Amino acid sequence: MSETLVADNALYSDLSAYYDDFCAGVDYHEQSAFAHRVLSAFGSPDGAVALDLACGTGAHLARMQAYGYELHGLDLNPAMLKQAQVKVPRARLIESDMSALDVHEVYDLVSCFLYSIHYSHPVSSLRQTLTRVLQALKPGGVFVFNAVNAQGALTERPVVTQIKRGEQQLTFRSAWHYRGQGETLDLHLTITRQDSAGCEQWHDQHQMTAITIGELQSILSETGFEVTVLEHNYGAFIPWKGESDNVIFIACKPETAIPDAGQHPG
After folding, report:
1. In this predicted model, which residue has the larger pLDDT, 185 or 22?
2. CA torsion sign, 201 to 204 to 210 to 216?
3. Contact 136, 101 (CB under 8 A)
4. Is the Cβ–Cβ distance between 29 and 52 less than 8 Å?
5. What is the DSSP string of 5-74?
6. Which of the pair, 8 or 44, is modelled with greater confidence?
7. Which domains, and CATH codes, for the chain?
8. Helices (H), strands (E): how many in the chain?
């Protein structure tokens, strides 16, 4: 069997054509509909401009077309963005790291699903990403994303997906590894491709940010967001009870700037 260890981001470029197959179990429609309901409840969806962070091949963007948004997507991987452009031709796509987003008061809605916010590593980079998102949102704009509690990653089981394409059998395996302390959450990925010619296997590893829900909530508040934490349920708005390790954050940019401490209206 041929085995290859690839650098960060390279695996997604090499096998980007299979990415949607590997994510076949993800309910993109449900998550996109949830984001629309969030914007309807916390902001205004009329004529909205929406940005999907870590948009990948544009699966969420494709579903969001139904809501009439002006769509933008950001991803670091050009191969993924190429597919997203085919899928959503009218979307404006940005090749960039999330922490390098550099726009001002453009978006009514920013979304980031599939726990991709954790790719902003280390915590200093995560803080920068949140600052850039706040800057990018219009007053009253909404940022919705999901996150996992650091300790919860210790009990997460590996995700294994198998697909068949002609004679090829492909297996995708992903698993988080957390050491129980520190701010690094390792994501291990293995993809196996097997056919009559033999077997190839790719291994990839990403460093993601390990953080508690409480710490993330505090950073969002310090950044300037008004924060709501919900249970990880895309079917309803259920306030987080403080026990589950997977949550959804709704972070709103205030309509007006909050005065600094000690500042008084003149």
Report:
1. 185
2. negative
3. yes
4. no
5. E--TTHHHHHTGGGHHHHTTTS-HHHHHHHHHHHHHHHS--TT-EEEEET-TTTHHHHHHGGGT-EEEEE
6. 44
7. 2-7+152-209 (2.20.130.10), 25-150+210-252 (3.40.50.150)
8. 7, 12
pLDDT of residue 158: 85
The pLDDT tens digits for 55-70 are 999 999 999 999 999 9
Give the C-alpha separation, 245 to 62, whole Å.
Answer: 29
For the residues of 135-189, what is the DSSP string, one character each? HHEEEEEEEEEEEE-GGGGGTPPPEEEEEEETTEEEEEEEEEEE-SSSSEEEEEE
Q: Are 232 and 244 in contact (CB under 8 A)?
A: yes
Sign of CA dihedral 230, 231, 236, 239: negative
Per-residue pLDDT reduced to its tens digit, 136-183: 999 999 999 999 999 888 777 888 888 887 888 989 888 989 989 999
d(CA 174, CA 209): 16
Q: What is the pLDDT of residue 6?
A: 44
pLDDT mean over 94-116: 97
- Write out the two tokens for 20: 């949607």
